[in-house]
Amino acid sequence: MKITTLMENTACSPEFACEHGLSLYIETGKRKLLFDAGQSGAFAENAGKLGIDLRQVDAFVLSHGHYDHGGGLPRFLEVNRQARIYVNQFAFEPHYNGREKYIGLNPALEGNSRIFPVSGEISLGEGLTLHTLPLPPMDSAGLTVLRNGRFLPEDFRHEQYLLVEEGGKRILFSGCSHKGILQIVDHFRPDVLIGGFHFMKIEDEDYLKQAAKTLLRYPTTYYTGHCTGERQFALMKNIMGERLHYLSAGTQVTV
Predict the structure, then answer these.
(1) Is residue 57 a contact partner of residue 34, using CB atoms and an 8 Å limit?
(2) Which of 27, 159, 189, 202 is an S-S bond match for 64, by CB 3.0 to 4.6 Å?
(3) Please, are residues 237 and 211 in contact by the beta-carbon 8 Å criterion?
(4) Could you tell me the pTM of the whole model?
């Protein structure tokens, strides 16, 4: 399986655009998938520079309903005319940072005939499954959801995960791991995990060191970026060594 990072906060070279967001192009033995689309259409420009034809993508998975993962959806709909788009059933709830800053999806997209709301676990065939987890809410970190006219602390019920089982390996894709990276890894225990840890606002070095040690208890190799934070990654890398890798826009890895 080959994974190409089409968008991330950083780029491996100046020729690739970067922005606060995430987009991954996944090639399995039989499928071509897009996992998230960044916050703009720039992921598509990077795909072109890498020789990736987004028209050939046969399924799109949105990890959760935040703009930095689904803002590029309109561009994908323009470029690709066939792929079904899988979103959690709660992805289009109004998501905010506090009460003023809207960080959700474009509400005009809700109801689009190609967007398929997912509830619980669903098989996409050929070793691909989507999962939501009934894990207890994590610290909302000031994020909210507008529900029934009231701002409530975000419970991240709109987050879903893509599990790919191929070649005897379990590869898990998690956009931001809002439900808690340690809980997610403990639940799935994958061979490879690809996605953000959502540690970018954590300044407590002892917490980060302990998290790194906890992640090492599992037989998992980690590829991360975006909301993990560059400083946080560097600290954890010192502990985790070759079990932890960073994904920048324009990079490709084979697992």
Answers:
(1) yes
(2) 159
(3) no
(4) 0.97
